[in-house]
Design a protein that fits this description.
14 helices, Aminoglycoside 3'-phosphotransferase, Chain: A, domain 2, 18 strands, Transcription Regulator spoIIAA, 391 residues, five-stranded mixed beta sheet, alpha/beta, Phosphorylase Kinase, domain 1, six-stranded mixed beta sheet, elongated
Amino acid sequence: MEHSYSDGILTVKLLKRIDSNNASDVDKELFAAIGECGAKSVILDAADTEYISSAGLRVILKLKKTVEDSKIINASPEVYDIFSMTGFIDIIDMKKAFREISVEGCEIIGKGGHGTVYRLNGDTILKMYAETEPLAEIEREIEYARNAFVAGVPTAIPFDVVKCGSCYGSVFELLNADTLGNVLAKNPDKYDEYSKKYIELVNTLHTTEADTSRLSNIKGLYNQWADEMAELLTADEIGILHEIINSVPDRNTFVHGDIHPKNVMVQGGELVFIDMADITYGHPVFDYMGMALTHVIAGGRAPQRAVQIMGIDYETGVRLWNDLVKARFGSLGEEGLKKMNGLLTAFGMMKFTVASAVNKSNPQQLKETLIGISRQTFFPNAENLIGAVKF
């Protein structure tokens, strides 16, 4: 068997077949390699393995008892089924081999910072992540989506992770689904129907308790972004950002992190969230500031950006935003709504201010341009946001 050792990890390429005829040889070779390098962790690569018998499974069991940090990768469906039927997937960490697919000729129905959403066919949607997105982050997003779904948040749950070239993707079963942005753009006469459903979806998210042991606090993420702006902002400016962030009341409800019509799918008339990479818990104002940025601020400076970000024109984005604010804060009356709209838009400029920490690939000139705008429109009145969230 081929094997290599690096940074305390022994990686072993398993044979095509492991049964009673060669299991003892596999045992000797495997443990000789472990003894030679003193490995603290072992990875068994099963990419070439087609069959493993009970004799082979006993070798795996011995390995797990000897080196606790052991796992199997690239298992074929057939090999994975053997481990599943014998209960071994409860004993050792095991990863299936990724199915290879092509997106050539597939319709693009959405594109964002984390990747591109394709329609593979009428039944399935693929979110193909950017090449820079590590597998661990993708698996984390899938786990977050499952947690939200179980808690009661309408969420699309991926059923498979695949590879396309050097990129990973997650596959969703969404029969004849489309983004809310595309549906609104194609069916303006259905705006009222989907506006109401959009509001209900957002409200469900913000009233659902999250498992705080599995998610991060949104304040921690924003404080991190503020610190990452050190090359562009002064210490005093970063200090003001921290004061604003930490003055927001605590909540244990879900925060999506990037709500807009391209991150919501319509299936059978019902709405579900996608793109759960940034889901956290905390006060809903952190989602409202993001929505103010995408629905109002970005398109206000460049109306064509609204279609790129949300899939709808700027006027529809503003209308949707106003409906959201009115539905949530309508009891404040006309003057109260006006003040709340201004407050949330000001918070939207705070997210605008840390945009270069959120989108680290922004070119330097763009980063400096954004900060210049923030110094003109955000920081002069930023101290008014400290402790301003009362809802």
